[in-house]
Design a protein that fits this description.
Helix content of chain A: over 70%
Largest sheet of chain B: 5 strands, antiparallel
Number of helices of chain B: 6
Largest sheet of chain A: none
Helix content of chain B: 25-40%
Order of helices and strands of chain B: HHHEEEEEEEEEEEEHHH
Structural class of chain B: alpha+beta
Radius of gyration of chain A: 16 Å
Number of strands of chain A: 0
Oligomer: heterodimer
Radius of gyration of chain B: 21 Å
CATH architecture of the largest domain in chain A: Orthogonal Bundle
Distance between the termini of chain A: 44 Å
Order of helices and strands of chain A: HHHHHHHH
């Protein structure tokens, strides 16, 4: 099955942007990743088994692209993450610090934590998306959560 | 507010403000495609020919079909690469190549107008040994008995590197390169490339991560003329290195 790309853009644009941003830590790079991801879907002839299959595929492509951006020379053009976070509007004033701490985690932990908490995927589903083992996902999730809690408790922004 | 809700509220504040439509996707694709297909084709055709060569060795050794061989090794950059070969029938071979995560590490640096070879803790000034037609070479044998030849060539302004890996019979079966060479801008990260031959047809297909090339590579049959043209576009230092090492495509 295929879904019109316009529908997918409407439904998943911000979700993919959040995933890409959590890896790239740059809004302009994340925008590029999102557009490249939808471009790949639109011009691919790949068939999917379900809407959920499409969502997981889009996330996987976006994550791979974002990792590539991080490794690329062109990453050097990216803007200050602190300046960008200052432009965001949060419900809780502590959230700016919390987001800063989340983004300070190593990439491999950020990706797993994002898929678990934001996309609400299970460990098995994350393992499938990242093409890794469930035990690896569990380890990264556990270590990432510990690191995050330690940092947040130090800053007293997390209860 | 639990952990999930707290995390979600953070990223709910982050929204993309870019306007994306079919029209913008089409324009983006046209802009990105120029110049990349040839480079990719050069890479995969080179890989395919050598993988197919290794498949044929497997067949000759066993004398029967449905042969599968698996070879895992590390490049000098630290990338884990696994090659799984299978002969389907008399005329059909498949090779599945899986690239690991650590692919970005290079073994040269440019600093203060000089070109350095940097590998295994060594940093050697090779500026005088390299130019448009000359190269520097370093060899080692890994734990699997595979011979690795690291080549850096080109000028300080436009350097490049390539790693050739030879099997125990002296046959070059794998190469990878970074910068200054026709396929240097490809980012091979955690993905699988399938190469197969059915009669005279050579077919290359990829999974996620190369989707922007998939349409062109999925059933890309590379003719001898196309292959010759792609090799002709390689820089002189690379051609000279391959000639000296006996590398043939």
């Amino acid at each position: 099955m295929r879904e019109p790309v316009e529908d997918l853009i409407r439904e998943y644009k911000n979700s993919l942007f959040a995933a890409a941003f959590s890896i790239c830590k740059s809004a302009s790079d994340a925008d590029d990743v999102v557009q490249d991801t939808f471009m790949k879907y639109h011009f691919s002839k790949k068939q999917f088994s379900s809407r959920e299959h499409i969502r997981a595929w889009l996330l996987r492509v976006a994550i791979n692209n974002a990792k590539d951006v991080n490794r690329s020379f062109w990453k050097q053009k990216s803007e200050s993450i602190e300046d960008y976070i200052e432009t965001l509007e949060f419900e809780d004033s502590d959230d700016k610090d919390l987001l800063t701490e989340v983004l300070a985690l190593p990439e491999k932990y950020r990706v797993v934590i994002h898929l678990f908490y934001y996309e609400e995927y299970s460990v098995a589903e994350i393992a499938d998306i990242l093409k890794t083992s469930e035990s690896n996902v569990k380890t990264r999730l556990s270590r990432g959560r510990c690191m995050l809690k330690e940092r947040l408790q130090e800053d007293r922004v997390y209860e | 507010m639990n952990e999930n809700e707290r995390y979600r509220s953070l990223f709910d504040a982050i929204e993309s403000d870019s306007e994306i439509s079919v029209d913008t996707l089409t324009k983006r694709r046209k802009a990105k495609r120029a110049g990349r297909i040839k480079k990719a084709a050069y890479t995969f055709s080179a890989l395919a020919l050598f993988f197919l060569g290794s498949n044929m060795i497997s067949y000759a050794k066993t004398g029967e079909f449905w042969v599968t061989s698996v070879l895992s090794f590390k490049t000098a950059g630290g990338a884990e690469i696994t090659i799984e070969d299978q002969q389907i029938d008399e005329n059909t071979w498949n090779s599945k190549v899986t690239f690991g995560d650590d692919y970005e590490k290079e073994f040269y640096e440019v600093e203060d107008g000089k070109l350095y070879f940097t590998y295994d803790g060594e940093k050697k000034d090779i500026t005088a040994e390299c130019d448009e037609s000359r190269y520097f070479k370093h060899e080692f044998t890994d734990d699997n008995g595979l011979r690795h030849v690291l080549v850096v060539g080109g000028t300080v302004e436009n350097p490049g590197s390539v790693e050739y890996i030879f099997d125990k019979d002296g046959r070059m079966f794998f190469s990878t390169s970074v910068g200054g060479v026709p396929f240097g801008d490809l980012n091979m990260v955690s993905q699988t490339i399938n190469v197969s031959q059915n009669g005279d047809d050579l077919i290359v297909s990829t999974e996620e991560g190369f989707e922007d090339l998939k349409e062109d590579l999925q059933e890309y049959v590379i003719s001898d003329e196309e292959m010759d043209k792609l090799i002709e576009e390689a820089p002189e230092w690379l051609k000279n290195a391959e000639k000296d090492l006996g590398v043939e495509y």
